[in-house]
């Protein structure tokens, strides 16, 4: 569809450009024709005046010279008219030869008729020549237009072939991407089913990252593919809710590679009770609490051992004192 629109736009643009060029050339042709017609009319008037002066000068000469001059003028006129029309020149020459023996008055009258015919013939020839030049110029314009149209056609044909190749390449890429999409989608669905069967939860490992999704109703983004899975975000682990972060997460998907981990729900619930922004911070908090508890246990063990030693020493001292008392009592009994 874009190619068709481009072709129509190019055609309209080329037609507008050619129309403007035609108008400019037609205007130029009209100006040239007007100048040429004016020039030819001026030349015809000057030639008519020259012929009239020659004829008036010849009338004052003798009859023999007068007849010979008229014959020569008629022959000259017939030669000039022959260039414009063969039939009219032949008829004029024949009539001039027939009338060479007539009276000077008739010859003069006939000469005026021939001059009028010659003037009309010259004017018609000039007009025909102007029309011929106009037609030749129009033919040149049509040739230029045809050449330009051919060039535009060839250029558009090349563009069409190139766009067709690009379209086929994009079509193949689209089919490949659709196939990859289906494969990734099936893999993610299978993974989600396995996670669901194992009753596990996905958490992130990165520090300070935004929310991924909610537990049991979330979207995992991997390579631009969204799917539902059991996820636990960092705010749920911290016991916090943040709608703004959830909106940002929906607008800007995060690619997941090695930044997620699978844990049980019991561990996730335990982690949700611990303060911290990331899994690493929570684990470090657990380790520090474990170390402190271990130290407390060790100190209590030491205290217990000390108490036991003290109790043992007291027991020994009590046993010694009791043995001394019993020996004294026995001595008294014996003395009595």
TrEMBL record:
Region of interest called Disordered, as start-end residue ranges on this chain: 41-99
Biased composition range(s): Low complexity: 83-96
Annotated InterPro entries: LRRFIP1/2 (IPR019139)
Keyword set, alphabetical order: Coiled coil
Coiled-coil zones: 111-180, 276-324
Keyword 4Fe-4S attributed: no
Biased segments, Basic and acidic residues type: 41-57
Pfam families: LRRFIP
Family: Belongs to the LRRFIP family.
Protein name in UniProt: Double stranded RNA binding protein-like protein
Organism (species): Sarcoptes scabiei
């Amino acid at each position: 569809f874009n190619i068709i629109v481009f072709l129509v736009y190019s055609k309209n643009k080329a037609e507008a450009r050619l129309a403007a060029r035609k108008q400019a050339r037609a205007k130029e042709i009209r100006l040239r024709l007007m100048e040429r017609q004016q020039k030819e009319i001026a030349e015809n008037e000057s030639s008519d005046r020259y012929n009239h002066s020659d004829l008036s000068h010849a009338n004052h000469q003798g009859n023999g010279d007068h007849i010979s001059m008229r014959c020569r003028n008629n022959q000259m006129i017939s030669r000039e008219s022959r260039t414009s029309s063969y039939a009219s020149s032949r008829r004029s020459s024949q009539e001039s030869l027939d009338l060479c023996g007539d009276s000077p008055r008739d010859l003069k009258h006939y000469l005026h008729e021939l001059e009028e015919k010659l003037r009309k013939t010259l004017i018609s020839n000039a007009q025909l020549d102007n029309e011929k030049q106009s037609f030749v110029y129009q033919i040149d314009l049509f040739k230029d237009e045809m050449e330009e149209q051919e060039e535009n056609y060839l250029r558009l044909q090349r563009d069409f072939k190139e766009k067709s190749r690009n379209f086929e390449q994009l079509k193949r890429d689209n089919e490949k991407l659709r196939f990859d999409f289906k494969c990734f989608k099936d893999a993610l669905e299978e993974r989600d089913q396995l996670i669901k069967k194992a009753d596990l939860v996905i958490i992130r490992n990165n520090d300070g990252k935004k929310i991924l999704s909610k537990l049991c109703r979330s979207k995992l983004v991997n390579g631009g593919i969204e799917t539902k899975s059991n996820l636990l975000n960092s705010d749920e682990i911290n016991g916090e809710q943040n709608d703004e972060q959830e909106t940002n997460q929906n607008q800007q998907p995060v690619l997941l590679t090695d930044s997620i981990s699978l844990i049980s729900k019991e561990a996730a619930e335990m982690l949700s009770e611990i303060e911290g922004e990331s899994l690493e911070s929570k684990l470090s908090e657990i380790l520090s609490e474990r170390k402190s508890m271990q130290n407390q246990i060790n100190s209590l063990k030491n205290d217990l051992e000390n108490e036991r030693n003290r109790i043992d020493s007291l027991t020994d001292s009590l046993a010694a004192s009791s043995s001394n008392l019993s020996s004294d009592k026995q001595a008294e009994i014996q003395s009595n």
